[in-house]
Amino acid sequence: MSDKAERGEEPSERERLPERRAAAHREARHVLARPGMRASIRERLELLREAGPQVYDLDEPADMYGDRIVAALEDRVAALLGTEAAAFFPTGTMAQQVALRCWAARTGNPSVALHPLSHPEVHERHALSQVSGLRPVHVTTATRLPTAEEIRALAEPFGTLMLELPLRDAGFVLPAWDELTEVVAAARERDAVVHFDGARLWESTVHFDRSLDEIAGLADSVYVSFYKSLDGLSGAALAGSTTLVEDAKVWRHRYGGTLFQQFPAALSALVGLERELPRLPEYVRHARVVAGALREGFAANGLPWASVHPEEPHTHQFQVWLPYEPDVAAEAAVRQAEETSVALFAGRWQSGGPGLAMTEVTVGAAGLEWTAQDVREAVAEFTARLPEKS
What we know:
Elements: H1 3-6, H2 13-27, E1 30-31, H3 41-51, H4 69-81, E2 85-89, H5 92-107, E3 111-114, H6 119-122, H7 127-130, E4 135-138, H8 148-153, E5 160-164, H9 177-189, E6 193-198, H10 205-208, H11 212-216, E7 221-225, E8 236-240, H12 242-254, H13 263-275, H14 280-300, E9 307-309, E10 317-322, H15 326-340, E11 342-343, E12 350-353, E13 356-362, H16 372-383
Parallel strand pairs: 1-11, 3-4, 3-5, 5-6, 6-7
Antiparallel strand pairs: 2-8, 7-8, 9-10, 10-13, 12-13
């Protein structure tokens, strides 16, 4: 219970906004995505009951400390990524810390070259340095992945180059394939190993026009998530050589990541690999239709300075920027969903600077029902709820 509730005070409109947004999205008839994390416990369990037998024999004994269904999931991931082995982790934060500290021990250099917008730097409370004794080194401050020239020009040595593919906080952006191969080569010229933060690597195949194993094959190790794009309950995998994965499993135990039983997460990951993974390219292609219609809709309704970034999304997720304060944009989005049952912008809005608001858009299975005209009409409804710019 909040302090206000204890004092018998009503929450402010701003404080009620997240709850209203969640409720409006649940009730909306038209959304661009319905992520599993917003479903009820009953709905999540029902999906596992219905889809689980299609991906694993549920009459088999449950796992204990990473065997059976967990081992089967690890084998499946290794096969998809073309690596010798893979290890299941309860979180991606743990998986990447373990991978990077294993590489630091092997290279003798605790410095990790990475982008300042990468997940460990923005969302993990400096865990690399505070927990694992690693030293982050920033390659570039540009809102894109580093270039080969920047890798070669980095003033200090580093043992590992970590690349987040796609770079979520820069707009889910990816480099061109030739740029990526040149960056990897530049790191190797400096005797560094390469690790991919591939939390969302699954949906990068369309942009690169390459298979998953070809993309993963550029790196010495790869981390992938099971819940961000595959709609699993939780969990991640670290993939690489057999010797690296065996080292990682030792550290996984030390970090408290070898859980007694993990079959619900493992089963949901197998379901995601079976059901969502094949559909991700379709989502990516339709996200480009949605993004184009958003730009057209904003221009037609008096907001030509609104921005979709990237203009052609690299994955099925992208950013929308508006010249309003976040609370103003958020209120318009929630009101549209409440009043029309169309949730065009279902995520939270955050500040991108004075008078600027940014939200992330995800196009999933539900979004495939939207035509470009549907999007343009929804933009008109949304902008009608924004205050006029003076």
